[in-house]
Amino acid sequence: MPSAIAPKDLFAWCRIPPGELSGHPEAKVQIKIVPTADDVYREFARTLADEIKEHNAADEPTRVILPCGPRGQYPYFVQIVNQERISLKNVHVFHMDDFLDWQGRPLPLDHPFSYEGWMQRNFYDPVAPELRVPEAQRHWPRVNDIDGISKAIEAVGGVDTVYGGIGYRGHIAYNEPPDSPWYIVTADEFRNSKTRILHLNDDTLIAISQRSVGGCSPFVPPMAITLGMKDLLNARRIRLYCETGAWKRTIIRILLFGPVTTEYPVTFVQEHPDVLVTVDAKTAACPLPPTG
Question: 175 and 230 in contact (C-beta within 8 Å)?
C-alpha cells in the first residue's frame, strides 16, 4: 500500500532542528524536550506521583493506564511513594498490554517477557505494604475475558491519564499498523478498536530483540494482547514518553507533523485535546542533516 506521507514532507520534518519542535506553528501535539533519558524517567515518575497526590488531597480516585515500557521511571516512582508516604489505596491501574506465546496464551509470571510479572516485582512489591495499590484495583487485559478490562474502566468512571511510550512505527500499547495485504482497517475502525490479541509486526520483534536479547528474535514472544485505541483515546489526558534516541527520531516528527493514519497509529492522539509528549535531547535530534 502507498504511504499516506509524501517522502518530501517526511524529509522536511526530519530536518527541523530540535530547538524548533516545541511551539512549532505546524505541530499538532505539544512536545517537551529534557536533557537526558534519566530526566524523561524522573519527569514521568514525578508527574504520576503528583497526579495521585492531587487526587488524594481531593479525596478522589486516580485511574491510570500504565505501560511496561519505558521502565526507567518505576524505581523513581517507588522511591517517591515510599519517601513521601503517598497512599496508592485509591489508585486503579489498567495495564495496557502484555506478551503472549505463539499460541496466544499468557506467559508464566517468571518469564523475562511477562509484563505482569515484571510490574509485580518492580512496581507493586517494592512499595511499602500499607501504601500499595490493592490487588483488586490492578487490571490486566485477559485472553479469557477480552472485554473485562474495558468494563472495569467504565465501572470506575473512565481513565484520568494514559501514560505510555511510542513504538518505532508509532504503535501505542500494541496498537500496531495493520500490515496485511489481505484486509483493510479503516481509520474509523482503528480509532474505535477494542482490546484484542494480535501477532506482533516484524519491526517490533526486531526492535525488542535488538534492545533486550542481543538480536535473538526467536526468544521474543511473537504475540500480544493490547487495549484498543478506543480506551486510550477516551482518557482525559495522554502523556507519552520517549527516550530511545535515534530509533525514535522520525516517529516523533511524524507524530508532530504528519496526518492521522493507521500507518503510524500514534498519530491518532492528535485528535485528543490534552496530549503532551516528553522526549530527551538525543531522541529529539534531527534524523537527517540540513540541506545545502
Answer: no
292: confidence class by pLDDT, cuts 50, 70, 90: low
Percentages of the chain per state (helix, strand, coil), in multiples of 5: 40, 20, 45
CA distance 187 to 268: 9
Q: List strand residue ranges (DSSP E) for the chain, in order.
A: 30-34, 62-66, 91-95, 97-100, 138-139, 161-164, 196-199, 223-226, 237-242, 275-280
Identify the burial level of 186 via C-beta atoms within 10 angstroms of its C-beta, where 0-12 means exposed, 13-18 middle and 19 or more buried. Answer: exposed
Say if residues 226 and 165 touch (Cβ distance below 8 Å).
no
Amino acid letter, residue 269: V
pLDDT tens digits for range 82-94 = 999 999 999 999 9
* End-to-end Cα spacing for the chain: 32
Residue 2 pLDDT: 76
Cβ-contact 31, 279 below 8 angstroms: yes
- Please identify which residue in the block is written with the cell numbers 520534518: 13
> Span 62-89, mean pLDDT?
97
Question: What DSSP character marks residue 16?
Answer: S
Residue closest to 90 by CA, chosen among 65, 61, 63: 61
Query: Which pLDDT tens digit goes with each residue over 242-271?
Result: 998 899 999 999 999 999 999 999 999 999
Q: Is the dihedral of CA 22, 251, 271, 143 positive or negative?
A: negative
- Taking residues 90-104, report their average pLDDT: 98
Cβ atoms of 91 and 135 closer than 8 Å: no
| C-alpha–C-alpha distance, residues 131 and 240, integer Å | 26
